[in-house]
Amino acid sequence: MHLHDNNKKADDHLPLRKGNIDFKSFIQLLKKDNYEGYVSIELDTWCRPPEKMSKKERIDGMKYINKILTELH
User: Fold this and answer.
1) What is the pLDDT of residues 22-70, one digit of tens each?
2) Most buried of the four, 25, 27, 36, 56, by CB within 10 Å?
């Protein structure tokens, strides 16, 4: 499974926190369902060329998910 954000209009492949997906609620559901698979953050996008995520957006996304996981642990 991979994570990226969107505005619920299309498969936008936005950086995390740039759309309106509630990742905290989503991760809570995964935990509730005892999900044991992998989750990756989609750091580059194929549908927004030539625009790519900046290094800061990548790091911010990883920190954001890590913060949620720490809070829920």
Assistant:
1) 999 999 999 999 999 998 888 766 665 556 677 888 889 899 999 999 9
2) 27
HEC per residue, the chain:
CEECECCCCCCCCECCCCCCCCHHHHHHHHHHCCCCCCCEECCCCCCCCCCCCCHHHHHHHHHHHHHHHHHHC
Given a contact cutoff of 8 angstroms between Cβ atoms, the answer to whether 12 and 47 are in contact is yes
CB 21 within 8 A of CB 27: no
What pLDDT score does 36 carry?
93
Q: Which two tokens stand for residue 42?
A: 């989609």
List the one residue out of 16, 28, 41 whose CA is nearest residue 72. 28
pLDDT of residue 68: 93
